Predict the structure.
Amino acid sequence: MKQKFDIIESTCVPLPLENVDTDQIIPARFLKATTRDEKFFGDNLFRDWRYAADGSPKADFVMNDPRYGGCILVAGKNFGSGSSREHAAWAIAGAGFRVVISSFFADIHKNNELNNFVLPVVVSEDFLSELFASIAADPSMKVRVDVPAQTVTNLATGRSERFELNGYKKYCLTNALDDIDYLLEQKDKIESFERARQSD
Amino acid sequence: MNTLFDKIWDAHVVSLVEDGPTQLYIDRLYCHEVTSPQAFDGLRARGIRCLRPERIFCMPDHNTPTHDQDKPIEDPVSKAQVDALARNAAEFGLTHYGMMSPDNGIIHVVGPEKGLSLPGMTIVCGDSHTSTHGAIGAVAFGIGTSEVEMVLASQCILQQKPKSMSIRIEGALGKGVTAKDVALYLMSKLTTSGATGYFVEYRGSAVRSLSMEGRLTLCNLSIEMGARGGFVAPDETTFAYLKGREYAPKGEAWDKAVAHWRTLRSGEDAVFDRELVFDAADIAPMITYGTNPGMGMPIDGSIPLDATPKALKYMGFDAGQSLLGHPVDYVFLGACTNGRIEDFRAFASLVKGRRKAPGVTAWLVPGSWAVKRQIEEEGLDRVLADAGFEVRQPGCSACLAMNDDKIPAGKYAVSTSNRNFEGRQGPGSRTLLASPLTAAAAAVSGVVTDPRTLL
């Protein structure tokens, strides 16, 4: 959903696993919806880790642990690998997350998050492991993500890092504009590109 | 610098967004039923049409049943998604190969076989295995649904230019070693994130010696190393494959196209961001033991002692264990990875004169109706039937459990598909990825078997 980003301060949901693939984020059997119903996808986020086959919550999964909550998901490296399904980003957004912090994201999923106004924040391995330790020590600790300043801060330790975000995307996120809004204004450029190619 | 990737990418740059991504022109967009409906909804919500409908081709494949396709799809939700694609294609004036159309099949099988994917093109689809089309000598990559909407609306996409990687494989592949084994080997070395951020050019004599089908398999699996895409520079193998295909240029246009395609190669002075070299002689038939495609080993090897415990627990394996002789419940031949004619020839060559093992359920699913027709023309269906195998109707089938073909919980499947993630082939399913030859060896023996012992 299009929404403006500024400064987000929140508790975190930790998922200290590496190589979390999009089949785990949202299994294929939930991809049959023909609408972008974020609540439906959000309800089924991490479905097979979160719920048993009979639909009962698995007590050992972090999203079922009442100590953890907030709009920041913290995940191990190579988050979102595998399938290009944007449903994974819809599920993350639909479950109420606005930021995902990891040391490494798979390319397609990272774009999908950005296109759905979920901010992927890439931090160093060190920052990530310290953050997991901070959350384990105190699940009520918070992280601040300052989009205009492009900084992420572990408020338990005070450690802060700058994260990458190109100027164009930052403008989009802070103004709730998407890439299609931009591309629709480029029709002249597209047509002149096509003409130039024809005459080659 | 001066890589083939640079040449193709740079020839499609419409503009550079200030302090941002590149606006890239897309020659071909493929749409399947799973990742497109919300994109079409987006167009309707904005009240816009497709800018270049003639560049867009649609076909259902993920939900397609692999039997009785002449009857309505039983699962109402699958049916709704397949119907939505047909409706959207009609409303927006796009070519659509519906179920039971002789042109239908898995999008990554149909595109190359119809000559819709051509050298030098930029090709996208809301599907990570779009990297397949790189085998033709194109820059092809998977995108999300919002990006599908961008291309539907503007025939362009905003993307950061990936870095370039050269993977050179030199030498001759050994007996029983296929393109699938090469890819599984590369993943086992690079891990599933080793090529993230890169576009890969596959080079070297072992790659050149691959048929077009083999190259399609190799490029298909680029994403499983994290790469956005992978490609092989076009050569005589490519031109021979494309000549006469429905959408390939004809007559004078063909000669002109080939002359241009011959220029599509990395310069002698090309500089890649990363270069890797492998020896084909080091590659054995491979099999996976874990829950991502990078968790693979030579079929006669043993599971690494440092394998991820969570993965081994899911698979029911122990570190240090050999998989040879391990019982197999299901065998799946097919998917955009290995659903082409050469894969069926390989499978048939091994099972010829043998019988399917009792207790093994085998699903042999061609990637398209064209592949199925060729199987029949070559008489492979009879060879397979004599050995106790049936050829089903085309579709993605058991690759991702969106249709009736699901592996039950706890069961072991030797699959020629592309992913062994937890639950990928059905909740609780346990997937062992391998080549069509290794799948055939398992199908006739009922256990994991080194195909070289049966060749």
In short: The CA atoms of residues 4 and 176 of chain A lie 5 Å apart. The longest helix of chain A spans residues 125-137. The mean pLDDT of chain A is 96. The two ends of chain A are 42 Å apart (CA to CA).
